[in-house]
């Protein structure tokens, strides 16, 4: 089997990523050489990761790190801990990182990693050992100038601190630049924890204004209530919007008068889920939030939540993709045809990687910015790119996703060609 054949075996998210990439390559009339280069991950590593339980039992997990494209700079992208992680999913997420970094014009390529572990079944010590074993496996291909991980589903700043420590222990010196999303004590940036959500909320505001819904009290549903979903709900609530429903993997809750989001977050901190929150009604399934009649829907959980089977139930006017790949390629086309404004992931959730880049810039300068400074630089970058995408969509007569993809893919293609097709 040739290399190309191996990469042709896809899973759902990777199929979506390739479908959207190929559509963009067609629109841009990319030359066959560069077209083929951009379709293939540059480097992949899969490693066996022992999970040593607190009672000494050992379970073998699998971890991956995929670097999709490095033409514009070191690989950049999160590390996911989930039992559903698989190599093709990581390939898709790595490819999306390439386009996201290019669209936001930050000097990174695209990468992503993950381990097949359910963090909710592990103690902190078990997770620390998994993280250290994973880093010793992928250590040879990560580093401040080669590939810089960050948080994603199931990981957080504590995980980043362990990665930094494991990598530094091997190097024999502190290497804070090997990860972003670190705690402040290790050189993290103000505002990184909520940065993705700040970007989502900011772009949601721009999108609502774009469709003439800039009045207060917009109704909102959020699918996924982790870092991105819970912070987005908080910020939209603070902005005066009515967050009427939220879901996580255990269930969903609804209150037509608007949820008290800070109070709901306290419930989640105590119980681990939105499920069972007393000041709201339960919905039959988590996915029931997708069919609610709301102005704004924020899918902020995982890939392929809106698909051919449920897309016709969606009644929101505006969808802002907090998650990566939450809408399948086919369902996305159907939403475009139905006139729903969809702000694509590579723009909508880019706030996280933008502030990761700011973390790196601050560390380089040895100069730390205030939370307000980080926030205003983030807002400025997101507004700028939003305008570029809207202008291109209007000039090309396409939707926002096509415009964002075309801008990003063209930028990466140009870099690859300038390097003699290096990537
Ligand atoms: N953390 C970050 O800075 C960034 C995250 N993203 C993306 O945002 C999405 C969410 O990431 P995080 O909030 O960091 O993860 P997280 O692990 O903090 O939260 C994930 C949430 O989604 C829920 N969930 C998972 N599967 C679900 C399902 N099938 N149905 C309903 N709810 C489900 C979980 O219960 C949890 O509430 C992912 O697509 C991630 O790749 C994108 C950019 C940056
Ligand atoms: O902050 C980063 O470097 C990457 C965040 C990420 O994984 C993403 O944007 O999907």
Automatic annotation (TrEMBL):
PROSITE patterns attached to this UniProt entry: GLFV_DEHYDROGENASE
Molecular-function GO terms, alphabetical: oxidoreductase activity
Residue ranges occupied by any Glutamate/phenylalanine/leucine/valine/L-tryptophan dehydrogenase C-terminal domain in the UniProt entry: 189-420
Domain of life: Bacteria
Keywords tagged on the record: Oxidoreductase
Family label: Belongs to the Glu/Leu/Phe/Val dehydrogenases family.
PANTHER family named among the record's database cross-references: GLUTAMATE DEHYDROGENASE, GLUTAMATE DEHYDROGENASE 1, MITOCHONDRIAL
Protein name: Glutamate dehydrogenase
Species name: Rhodococcus gannanensis
